[in-house]
Amino acid sequence: MAHNLHGIDIDPRAIQVAGLTLWLRAHRSWQRLKVRAALRPRIQEARLVWAEPLADGDLLAGFARTLRSEILPGQTKPLAPAEAQVLGDLLRSVAHHTRLVGEAGWLIPLERELASLIETARQQWQDARAAVAKATQTDMFRGAPAQQLTMPLEALGKVRRKAFFAEAEDLLLVALTLYAEQAAGPDAYQRQLFAADAARTLALVDLCRLRYDVVLMNPPFGAAADASKTYLDRNYPSAKMDIFAMFVDRALRRLRPGGFVGIISSRTGLFISSFKIFREQVLLRHHLPLVADLGGEVLDATVETAAYVIQQAQPSPQPTTFLRLLNVPGEEKAEALFDGLQNEDSEYRFDIPTAEFEVIPGQSLAYWATKPIRQKFTDSAFNLTGGAVKQGLETANNFRFLRLWWEKSPKYGWFPLTKGGSYYPFYSDIYLSINWIDQGRELKAWAAPLYGNSGWSRIIKSVSYYFTPGLTYPRRTHTLCPQAMPAGGIISARGSGIYPFPLKAAVVPNKIFSTWLYLLLSLLTIC
């Protein structure tokens, strides 16, 4: 536990629960091995770190004064003033770089930031030493200094030892410990808290710097917070479409060669078109030995999940094992999972090399499709261009803007609204009407100030596709059921539209059609 297990979380409660769980499991193992309590090793440390920002302020200034006046453990005399100044500035810079850690955690590459700060200071030190040497040269004809040194790097030029920069992080940690131990007076408690926070920050840097054999995670999903979005998008350009994809990218960067990352996350990154770059530039550039497509009823959230393993190695010609558990009830998923892992002939199991997905534009991992269907994408006669899937509107006030179809007539500005519903093959009656008088004037006026005055287009989408014929389908049913959508209606967020549908065959809601449409939906533009 002290040397091989590490953990990071932005929630201190998660850190406490993880530490207690490790302690209990260790004692349970010793009990099973009949190791008496007196002989059990003392668990003094678990490498679990709470990722939190380090506050800048007066305490940093006080810490800098301690650096200048105290002899640090392992040193024979106080640091040179220039060295103390550099360490204080380094900690202040680290504090600045941790401002996003509280919401982005491990995604902030602190190891790179601190290394860059120290390298910048070292380079400035070299420049300053050269400038000091040049400034002290005497003009042989005038007997006076050749130039005056007025540059702000003068203090850096007085750092005595080049090795100081290699020791900088360790010196910071030692100084913080001393700062906490010598706390006295009215601000003693605050000093101790500050030193503990700073030590945690440096411990986080250590965990960020390590290379791991195995990383396990259940990352958050969705868009990054506004405060960190620009920074994260810049650092994870191939995974910026979702925060869970950024965590996958980050974990792969910190693995040792041959190491593994195990993830349970939203399953969307494996299939839909908006994750095309993530699949091509991150996921499928590594070996993918196992994917369990779990679906719902797994986490305490209304999200369909997948659990998968990625190895820090080149893609392998060996097949990836895919386990399809989407339609297995939640309480039966564990049994089905073990059946798929142990039995090559399991109904849940598909063994397919990832190279076979290269023929599908966007490399959607459509493992459920048979090889002849996948190969159809290489057929030049099979043209899939021109299709688009469009999400429609939400009202944010159904009671005000929706009526049953017989209550209001289109001639008065109330039009049919596709709003999903239950499973029906071929066709389903459109039973709702929406107030779209004067091109939705009242609804747009209602929607515009919502969500911080973000404008009506945030919830009223794809207006140019309204009243166009095509197909629609409910967002959530036990199986796919495309339905004819006549002209003259409006699409919603729960009843999206497909325009125009690229297949020129009859729409038949059977397994063949469903397979094709699942594949196509990963290629069409979804917005």
From TrEMBL:
The EC code for this enzyme is 2.1.1.72
Q: Which InterPro entries match?
A: DNA_methylase_N6_adenine_CS, MethylTrfase_TaqI-like_dom, N4_N6_ade-DNA_methylase, SAM-dependent_MTases_sf
Pfam families xref list: Eco57I
Sorted keywords for this record are: Methyltransferase, S-adenosyl-L-methionine, Transferase
Q: Which SUPFAM superfamilies is this protein grouped with?
A: S-adenosyl-L-methionine-dependent methyltransferases
Q: Which GO terms describe its molecular function?
A: methyltransferase activity
GO BP, sorted A to Z: methylation
Catalytic activity, reaction form: a 2'-deoxyadenosine in DNA + S-adenosyl-L-methionine = an N(6)-methyl-2'-deoxyadenosine in DNA + S-adenosyl-L-homocysteine + H(+)
Domain spans labelled Type II methyltransferase M.TaqI-like: 3-295
Against PANTHER family, the record matches this protein to: DNA METHYLTRANSFERASE A, DNA METHYLTRANSFERASE YEEA-RELATED
Q: What is this protein called?
A: site-specific DNA-methyltransferase (adenine-specific)
